[in-house]
Amino acid sequence: MDIVKCPVCGELLKQYQAFYRCQKNHSFDIAKEGYTNLLLNQSSKIHGDAKDMLLAREYVQTKGYYQTVAKTIVLMMKCLSKEQIVDIGCGIGYYTAFVQEAFHTNVIGIDISKDALKIAAKKNASVAYYVASNKSLPLMDQSVDLIMNIFSPVYITEVKRVLNTHGYIIVVSANKDHLIELKEIIYEDIHDKDELRNDIEDDAFKLVNETSVKESMIFDKKSLDNLFLMTPHYWTSSIKGKEKLAEIDELLLSIDVSVKLYQLGK
Ligand SMILES: [Zn+2]
Predict the structure, then answer these.
(1) Cα distance from N-terminal residue to C-terminal residue, the chain
(2) How many angstroms separate the CA atoms of 163 and 73, rounded?
């Protein structure tokens, strides 16, 4: 389905075999891995997550630690209209692919990290992946039935613009106790180390469903190291915290994640 817009002029992009082109002849090649770069400002070389972080995320997600979260998302989506789904801030496409495989509908993944989409596109060729910013989605107005926003910042103005009149957004974010045992090891004081919260406080949306995924899982040494590397904690913890963690062989960790479904329109 054609809903992708040209980042230069805003016209609809049509897909040809190996590229996209708008009426004004702006064209964008589809990379050999299968994603398309629609980001105009390429001046900075570092966009989004660093490569090590992406590989760490792939390791942890492949091990299935976040499978219950993915299954909960699918369950919540089951009865919704979802001809066109978009996963914004999709990263390496773990949840994107999971949802596509569950429903076999039109699924788009958007992320600012080209490296993330290289991994994502190779894993599931049925999803269309675009490099773009959440702040400026390359999508036509009112073209999307359902948006997924999984552990990623929400820019509500863009969400409102691209959603259909009664479209949905599913938002997944970490609760306070998510990975608490890890935080207790790496921080002296964990109180001001709250996770990113993504509650939507916009009058245009109503909360229609919510649940939490709570479970405990044993992370072995390698999984623990990878988990640490994929979270923002890697950047915010002290050297002392990192040393303490290095001495631990395995850890029972709490997964505690909030899944919320909002609908546009009162
Ligand atoms: Zn154009």
Answers:
(1) 28
(2) 18
Ligand 1 center to residue 155 CA distance, Å?
24
Compute, in angstroms, the gap from residue 124 CA to the centroid of ligand 1. Answer: 27
pTM to 2 decimal places = 0.93
Question: Is the pLDDT confidence value at 170 over 90?
Answer: yes
For residue 30, how far is its CA from the centre of ligand 1 (angstroms)?
Answer: 16
User: Residue 153 has what pLDDT?
Assistant: 87
For residue 13, how far is its CA from the centre of ligand 1 (angstroms)? 7
Tell me the pLDDT tens digit for each residue of 131-149: 999 999 999 999 999 999 9
In the reported structure, the alpha carbon of residue 228 is separated from the centroid of ligand 1 by a whole-number distance in angstroms of 41
| 3.30.365.10, 3.40.50.150, 1.10.1740.10, 3.30.70.360: CATH of 14-264 | 3.40.50.150
